[in-house]
Each structure stands twice: as structure tokens, then as C-alpha cells.
Amino acid sequence: MTNNEWIYYVLYLFSVLVASLSQIILKKSAMIHYENRLKEYLNPYVIGAYFFFFGSSLMTTLSYRGVPLTLGPVLESTGYIYVGILGMLILKEKLSRRKIIGNLLIIGGILIYAFI
């Protein structure tokens, strides 16, 4: 792997982080009570989250110039880890034992794929 290829891997992981952040923003928006349906979908949280999703999709597409298609889903699975951490930090959610075990299994799967 050359130095330039690492840029694509970092870009892919960053795009997954941005998508995870947008999921957290959407959940934060869903926790707010709105007066009507229109304000529920047309508010800064929702519009911003979908803007981040769009940017994440562009970054993911660009990163596939250097990331093999077989590795994409493996890198995408890091989103579960990001969402767990961001949920804990931003939404003050508690990490249950099951979530910790699930994230450890995801990390283990990524490591197994990386070394085989």
C-alpha cells in the first residue's frame, strides 16, 4: 500500500464518522416535540443531518478510488462504534454490557479481516 492509498482509507473512515454524526443529529431532532409535521421535517437539525449524509456519500464515493470494494463494508462497520461513542458523549446514553460486547465483536471482525 502506497502513501497515497492511506488518504483514501482515512477519507472513508471520516465519511463513516460524518454519517454517524448525522444519525446522532437526527436522533436529537426526534427527541424534540414539534407543533406540526412540517416543522418536524423542516428544521435545522434535520436539514443539517441530511446535508452531512450527502457529504458523507460523496466522500465515500471518492474514497473508493483507493479502497477495494471488498474492504468497504468492513470499514463501514466502524459506524456502529462511532454511533455508540457519540451517543454516549452527546446524548448521554449509557453503554450496556451487550453494546460493549457487540462493539468488541465488530472490532475483532475488523482485525481478523485485516490480518487474513
Automatic annotation (TrEMBL):
It is a multi-pass membrane protein. It comes from the Bacteria. GO terms for cellular component: plasma membrane. It is found in: Cell membrane. The chain crosses the membrane at residues 6-26, 47-64, 70-91, 100-115. The keyword Cell membrane applies. Keywords: Cell membrane, Membrane, Transmembrane, Transmembrane helix. One of its GO terms (molecular function) is transmembrane transporter activity. It comes from Acetobacterium woodii (strain ATCC 29683 / DSM 1030 / JCM 2381 / KCTC 1655 / WB1). This is Putative multidrug resistance efflux transporter. Gene3D superfamilies: 1.10.3730.20. InterPro entries: EmrE-like, Small_drug/metabolite_transptr. Its main location: membrane.
